[in-house]
Design goal:
Blueprint: H1 16-31, H2 33-36, E1 44-49, H3 55-66, E2 70-74, H4 88-96, E3 101-106, H5 111-118, E4 123-128, H6 134-147, E5 155-159, H7 166-175, E6 181-185, H8 194-202, E7 206-210, E8 222-225, H9 236-242, E9 261-263, H10 284-289, H11 291-302
Parallel strand pairs: 1-2, 1-3, 3-4, 5-6, 5-8, 6-7, 8-9
Helix pairs in contact: 1-6, 1-11, 3-11, 6-7
The structure holds phosphoric acid mono(formamide)ester.
Phosphoric acid mono(formamide)ester binds next to helix 3.
């Protein structure tokens, strides 16, 4: 399947070769950015954010601007006609006529697929509920590629809220193309949902589950830390029981391989002490910045500017 006009709803819709194609394009954009300026002149991206965001919205918008395109949209749905009772479906149908590509973030799992079914223009999932965040995965992979000599055969630990963490649900699947050993480290109540675990095992991925980070910390090439997602808890007491359960301090590095890389999709709350930010192991801000070339690559491929 080609890239032109393609929806990006689930990372599961892309082959290993297609993922690598995006990473290669992003690397070229990062090296030769001025060459890409003006590539999408005359194209418009609609940025529909029904949930708060800093990185996803701003990096998509910056990517479109750097490519010479225009941006419309909202980050505060209460300022749209949804407040007057307009439905999600009608909102998508209308915006579809104003743009060339739609980027959507929404609290409901499956909403990006629904938008893609309604819209004639390509839809990019910027995070749908607790389900998936496929474009985060693309620059997570890009970050791994930049920091590790080989993307294959790595030992990768996912730490924190693996139940609600959509970045984990997308990235763990994408990694299955690269023969990893995966460690899922969480409290029992925030374990990786069974459907994702079964899927990984069916693909032959070696998976371990653990509650104590220190039992596996010296086995890891990458530790992918996630925030406990307070906003997803229906019961405040359940959140209170797991709040602050993992907090990385500088002394943590005494228990790891020297070449460990610490990643985090951000935002962080209290799970990584800022004193760790300057450590060579910490690549989470570089990871956030990698969003730009990767989202530029994706937009240029989908809108036919490459
Ligand atoms: N990582 C990520 O999706 O960040 P935002 O919620 O700020 O977009």
């Amino acid at each position: 399947m080609g890239w032109l006009g393609r929806d990006v709803v689930s990372i599961r819709d892309f082959s290993k070769e297609e993922l690598i194609e995006v990473l290669d394009k992003a690397a070229d954009i990062e090296k030769n950015r001025p060459r890409y300026a003006g590539l999408l002149r005359g194209k418009i991206m609609a940025s529909l954010f029904f949930e708060p965001s800093t990185r996803t919205r701003l990096s998509f918008e910056a990517a479109m601007h750097y490519l010479g395109g225009g941006v419309i949209g909202f980050s505060e749905p209460s300022m749209t006609s949804i407040t007057k009772g307009e439905t999600f479906d009608d909102t998508i149908r209308v915006v579809d006529g104003y743009c060339d590509v739609i980027v959507i973030r929404h609290p409901e799992s499956g909403s990006a697929r629904k938008a893609a079914d309604l819209a004639k223009k390509p839809v990019i999932n910027g995070g749908d509920g607790t389900h998936e965040h496929p474009t985060q995965t693309l620059f997570d992979l890009y970050t791994i590629k930049k920091n590790c000599s080989d993307m294959h055969d790595l030992s990768i630990g996912f730490l924190g809220d693996l139940k609600n963490g959509r970045t984990v649900h997308s990235l763990s699947y994408a990694l299955s193309h690269f023969n990893p050993t995966l460690y899922f480290i969480s409290p029992k109540s925030l374990k990786l949902p069974e459907e994702y675990m079964k899927e990984l095992k069916k693909k032959g991925v070696i998976c371990h589950e653990e509650e104590d980070l220190f039992k596996v910390s010296n086995k890891l090439d990458i530790l992918y830390v996630t925030r406990i997602q307070k906003e997803r808890f229906l019961n405040p007491e359940e959140y209170h029981n797991v709040k602050g359960v993992y907090q990385l301090e500088p002394s943590f590095l005494k228990h790891t391989r020297p070449n460990l890389k610490i990643m985090h999709p951000l935002p962080r709350v209290d799970e990584i002490n800022p004193q760790l930010d300057k450590a060579k192991q910490s690549v989470y801000f570089q990871q956030a910045h990698n969003a730009l070339p990767v989202r530029m690559a994706l937009l240029s491929m989908i809108l036919g500017g490459h």
